[in-house]
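Reply to dn_fold:

You asked what the input looked like. This is it:
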Amino acid sequence: MQAPARIQPRSLNDYLDVMSKSVFQSGLFWKVVESKWPTTRDALQRFDPKIVASLTDEDLDELTQDTRLIRSRRKLNAVVHNARRILELELELEQELELEQEQEHGGFQNYLRSHGDFENTLKDIKKRFKFLGDAGTFHFLWVVGEGVPDYEEWCKVHH
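and this is what came back:
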């Protein structure tokens, strides 16, 4: 299998998109998630964290009936939780670092880079975010261009 393409995140939407894909891939064949991803993006408002974070239980009830996406209520709840955490971390770190306005996702990116190494980042992400285990976190960090160990070496330790 070929490694997923890496991106240069341009907004918090990109981080939430990639993180949510890792959430939905948990326990499923990646091709199933990949085939539904364009319509999942539409159903979840292009992963705008402010919109996703504000989804209500009624909104989630509607989404569990929407055939454009994988309709797992637990995973949808995790995506909403994770959107809220991303926004909280973005705000916290922007306030701490007094970042300039044009650095739209600087706080969250600084959070990802604040742990010193991959293993510490992995532990903290698994603690703060829902439905992200070792493999999902590795996938997320790889795709958003953060430092990760060699995959073959990592597998020896984590599988």
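The two ends are 17 Å apart (CA to CA).
Hope that clears it up.
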